[in-house]
């Protein structure tokens, strides 16, 4: 297949955290001459259009999201609604199947990349096309939670079940606390749109697709990917790191000026994504813990539960105590540009992990345990809460020069950074992905 170009359609789950990695993948494929038809919610187009580096080859096709009772008018993605309403977004996405079929009949792509739309493999087979489940959830998470060996659809799933791995699962550092296991079991078995559970939706997608692709490398997640491939009896495709191209934008002058006040490799940057909303007490423990470190910090979080503005939720006297050293914002921040700034450790950023829901928990265990490239903040065994001292302890363990754990983490971080940035690695993986 060397030299052959393909027509590819992409239809990711209506969440910005899924749409964006699909666009990064589309860019890598377009770079090799492949043509991409990218379906996405109509109003989301403006938020992601700038990430399209090959507009002559990547064509965004806006999809009108059908209204579902219970959703606010105009809600399109998970960003628009709280977590309990995500299944309604999924139900709306399921109702687009007739429109997607009409587009696919017209476009006649060679492959369709998808993730949560479990009806896609049956549709592509009907149309004589091939489906690729391109999964941005880690293979460790998929293998641990959704292995066919668990027989979830026949037996159900409880927190007790998730305290141990499924039969044949590779040796790993994944160990769940009971509250985590119970939470993951509840999410895995919940109705996730159109009367289909989260587990059934994914098991159908993995079982029915023609191939499974993961955004990872064999050297990092090989055992988990091989386990999944064997469990579902599907060919496994490794896309490699799929590192997005650096944004051509520059930091606003006011933010550049702010960050330049701090020495290189000293600033703590804290961001949990657009969908994480902390309880007020946990938000306060977090910022108080960052205050205790004595280091400069920049926090970009949504206002906690019950607060209209983030300033109103800050602890009493906090702003006066950290004036000039600590900054807390409740709006969007240009994360990539901030992390490239010298004060924020450029590409050498060390990771303090604070998992909240879903695959974040297992990802944190893999990063802090298997790979040893980060430190996870300790939480209460029973309630899952952390304190300001837990935050301070994790940061100090990583940042203090005389910390043995910090030395080990930094050494491993440097090793994996060198591996992932090695000349030719990404090209090799992407070429193998296409030629499979």
Brief synopsis:
With 436 residues, the protein is an alpha/beta fold. It has helices spanning 16-30, 45-48, 86-94, 97-107, 120-127, 139-146, 152-155, 178-189, 198-208, 218-232, 253-259, 280-293, 318-321, 335-340, 359-370, 388-399, 404-420, 425-435, and strands spanning 7-11, 35-41, 58-63, 111-114, 130-135, 211-214, 236-238, 268-271, 297-300, 326-329, 351-353, 374-376.
What would you note in describing this structure?
- One of its GO terms (molecular function) is UDP-glucosyltransferase activity.
- The chain has 436 residues and is of the alpha/beta class.
- It folds into two domains: 7-245 and 423-435, Glycogen Phosphorylase B (Rossmann fold, 3-Layer(aba) Sandwich), CATH 3.40.50; 253-420, Glycogen Phosphorylase B (Rossmann fold, 3-Layer(aba) Sandwich), CATH 3.40.50.2000.
- The chain has helices spanning 16-30, 45-48, 86-94, 97-107, 120-127, 139-146, 152-155, 178-189, 198-208, 218-232, 253-259, 280-293, 318-321, 335-340, 359-370, 388-399, 404-420, 425-435, and strands at 7-11, 35-41, 58-63, 111-114, 130-135, 211-214, 236-238, 268-271, 297-300, 326-329, 351-353, 374-376.
- The chain has a seven-stranded parallel sheet, with helices on both faces.
- Helix 15 (359-370) links the parallel strand 11 and strand 12 (374-376).
- Helix 4 runs parallel beside helix 5 (120-127), helix 6 (139-146) packs parallel to helix 10 and helix 12 (280-293) packs parallel to helix 16.
- The longest helix is centred in the C-terminal third of the chain and has 17 residues, at 404-420.
- It is globular.
